[in-house]
Amino acid sequence: MREDSLITYIIDGNNLIGKIASLMNLQKKDKQASREKLVYILDRYFIQKRASVSLHLDGHQAGSINSSKMKIIYSENLTADEKIKKQISQSKSPRNIIVITSDSNLAQFAKVCSTTVISSEEFVAGIKKSAQTADEQVRIDSINNIEEFKKLFGVDDK
User: Fold this and answer.
1) Exposed, middle or buried, 43 (CB in 10 Å: 0-12/13-18/19+)?
2) Which of 29, 33, 75, 149 has a beta carbon 3.0–4.6 Å from 80's, enabling a disulfide?
């Protein structure tokens, strides 16, 4: 796969926070904590994926948030939507972009520019499904490890 064909995810962070009940409730009390938790969730989701990810957040940076997978972009004096539109417009390969938003104006702009749009609700459902699959795999692996352990030490269930 050529570098220019790498999929780029552009995430409307505040829009996504609004679609995750726990983060929306947390944001009402502690905006920074909701952002940190969102970054943690997204890092876990994208850890095994070969993709470039930029997370757009409204406003100014309040504190440092570290991410192993994403570039975090603050809108500062603009809106996150304006920054996202600018990133799409400046892209050399908009067909390789996936925009995550439920904002109809932003989604329409992204579609006109030939990007793929996934609604925040659909993306959250995908994250939850991915997390469940990972949890199931851990359980399956632990069962397999128990069977291996029994064989190794000659334990017979009969």
Assistant:
1) middle
2) 75
